[in-house]
Design a protein that fits this description.
mainly alpha, 4 helices, 88 residues, 0% strand
Length: 88
């Protein structure tokens, strides 16, 4: 099961301090993108996990995208979970 990450630029209606913190932390590990895309992708990771996916399989899927290393993908998934779906 693949994690379909959004590659198109999308605006977000409202960014809060959690969103700002997430984007800042993701940027600090070298993952740069439009904030709305990064946040949307984090929510996509959470949806994947809610459907029974594992963090490892989510990280593998993210790592298959251009610009992601396996370590960066694992960190992106970890940050996604801690900010948007801490129950996983």
């Amino acid at each position: 099961m693949a994690v379909p990450l959004v590659l198109l630029s999308m605006g977000i209606a409202h960014a809060d301090s959690n969103d700002d913190d997430f984007v800042q932390q993701v940027n600090s590990i070298g993952i740069i993108g439009a904030p709305g895309n990064l946040i949307t992708n984090a929510h996509t990771v959470c949806q994947f996990l809610n459907q029974g996916g594992t963090q490892q399989s989510a990280a593998n899927n993210v790592a298959s995208m251009p610009g992601f290393t396996p370590a960066g993908a694992a960190t992106f998934v970890s940050l996604s979970v801690s900010h948007y779906c801490p129950g996983h």
